[in-house]
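[09:14] KT: can someone run the structure on this one? pasting the chain below
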Amino acid sequence: MDRLVYLSMAGAKANMQRQDVLANNLANAATPGFRAELSAFRAVPVQGSGASTRVYALESTPGHDMSPGVVSTTGRPLDVAMRGNAWLAVQALDGTEAYTRAGSLEVSADGTLLTHGGLQVMGDGGPIQLPANSEPSIAPDGTVSARGANGRSTAVGRLKLVTPEAPLNRGTDGLFRAADGDLPADASARLQDGALEGSNVSPVETMVAMISAARQFEAQMKVLQTAEGNEKAAAQLLSVS
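[09:31] RB: done, structure tokens below
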């Protein structure tokens, strides 16, 4: 009896965790540059006396979907879409260097170039500062220029674009980092200005997967209810005998 309960409990928990991942992906279906998180489970034997036949389903996150999102033209000078496998370097809230494909940039009141989420955008020499009352523009190689009132454009920095050779690791803050530390700038990396890369999450496929996970969860709960009913019936037979 305990085997039935254990298997159905492990299956129900696994489906709940799967739904959490799918719900997060669906919530970010409209987030620029978002990479869909993948979910998987692996079997882990339970250690202990009398538990050698028990196997627990442990959640495992193998990574993220690296397929590119759809690039849409916005015409906004501070919107950039990285080409190929290029990533934009930013300074995370913990002070470390991280990487993102979300290219919706803004200029703060003091002239600092920031992401839409308020993170400092890293240049080859650190954060990029723009002069007051200037019109920014970004070239395909990442060079940031500011045009003043006199109509002249002056280069004020260059976005740090990196091209990782190994897969990046997603952090709890949604940013990506390299396993071996900060990556060097890639002079050959290019971007498309006036455009944004969308999320690579398919809302339809994700909704279908959520429905499937919900039905599997319901099936596991019915097995638990069956096990409970069998246990009550067995207890009644023992009391009568």
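[09:33] KT: thanks! The helical segments are 2-27, 203-240.
[09:34] RB: yep, looked fine to me
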